[in-house]
C-alpha cells in the first residue's frame, strides 16, 4: 500500500506552498469506525480508501477562522452523509448511476470525486468526478458529460498524477 504519510506531506506542500492555510490531517480512524461506516452504507470500502482511512481520518486545509474539521477528504464518520448528499444531486435523473457513486472528496462547490461501482459491483478503474454545474446545465444529458474520469487511484490523485 502507498506511504500515505509521505503522500499527504507532499500534497500539502504542492497544494499550499506558501503555507497560507492550516493543514488538517486527522489521525487514522479505527477499524471499528470504518466498519460502522461500511455497515451504514451497505458496502465494503475499496481497499485503497480503507487503507487511507486507517492512516488519516480526513484531510483538508482551513483558514484561521474556519473549523478544524477536514472537509476535503471527509472523515469516515461523515462519509455516509456525504455520499448520500452527493448522490441526491443527480439521483432524480440518473438514479442507477447515483446509487453506484462513492464520493469521498468534497470540492466545497457541489462537485465530488470518488469511486464508481460498475453494474456488477466491481470498481470502475480510476476515480471519477461529479461536476454539478455541468449536470445542472442539462440534467437529462448523458452521464459521460458530467461524470469525468480522473487519476487511476487516490494515491495518484494526491500525488498530482493523472
Please give a structural write-up:
InterPro entries: Knr4/Smi1-like_dom, Knr4/Smi1-like_sf. It holds the Pfam family SMI1_KNR4. Residues 28-160 form the Knr4/Smi1-like domain. This is Knr4/Smi1-like domain-containing protein. It is a single chain. Helix content is 35%, strand content 19%. The protein has helices spanning 4-15, 31-41, 47-55, 79-88, 95-98, 132-137, 154-158; strands at residues 22-27, 56-62, 101-106, 112-116, 128-130, 147-149. The mean pLDDT is 92. The protein has 162 residues and is α+β, with helices and mostly antiparallel strands. It starts with a helix and ends with a helix. The protein has one domain (4-158): SMI1/KNR4-like (3-Layer(aba) Sandwich), CATH 3.40.1580. 31% of the residues are buried. The strands form two sheets. It has a four-stranded antiparallel β-sheet with strand order 3-4-5-6. Strands 1-2 form a two-stranded antiparallel sheet. A hairpin with a 5-residue loop joins strand 3 (101-106) and strand 4.
Q: What sequence of helices (H) and strands (E) makes up the elements?
A: HEHHEHHEEEHEH
Main beta sheet, described? 4 strands, antiparallel
CATH architecture tag = 3-Layer(aba) Sandwich
CATH class placement = Alpha Beta
Total of helices: 7
Distance between the termini: 18 Å
Evaluate the radius of gyration.
16 Å
Number of domains: 1
Give the strand order, joined by hyphens, for the main sheet.
3-4-5-6
Amino acid at each position: 500500500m502507498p506511504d500515505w504519510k509521505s503522500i499527504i506531506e507532499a500534497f500539502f506542500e504542492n497544494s499550499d506552498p506558501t503555507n497560507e492555510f492550516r493543514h488538517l490531517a486527522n489521525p487514522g480512524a479505527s477499524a471499528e469506525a470504518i466498519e460502522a461506516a461500511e455497515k451504514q452504507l451497505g458496502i465494503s470500502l475499496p481497499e485503497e480508501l480503507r487503507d487511507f482511512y486507517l492512516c488519516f481520518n480526513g484531510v483538508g486545509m482551513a483558514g484561521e477562522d474556519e473549523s478544524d474539521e477536514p472537509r476535503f477528504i471527509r472523515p469516515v464518520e461523515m462519509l455516509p452523509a456525504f455520499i448520500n448528499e452527493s448522490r441526491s444531486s443527480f439521483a432524480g435523473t440518473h438514479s442507477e448511476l447515483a446509487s453506484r457513486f462513492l464520493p469521498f472528496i468534497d470540492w466545497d462547490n457541489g462537485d465530488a470525486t470518488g469511486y464508481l461501482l460498475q453494474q456488477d459491483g466491481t470498481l470502475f478503474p480510476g476515480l471519477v468526478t461529479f461536476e454539478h454545474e455541468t449536470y445542472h446545465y442539462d440534467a437529462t444529458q448523458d452521464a459521460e458529460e458530467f461524470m469525468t474520469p480522473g487519476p487511476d487511484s487516490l494515491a495518484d490523485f494526491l500525488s498530482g498524477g493523472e
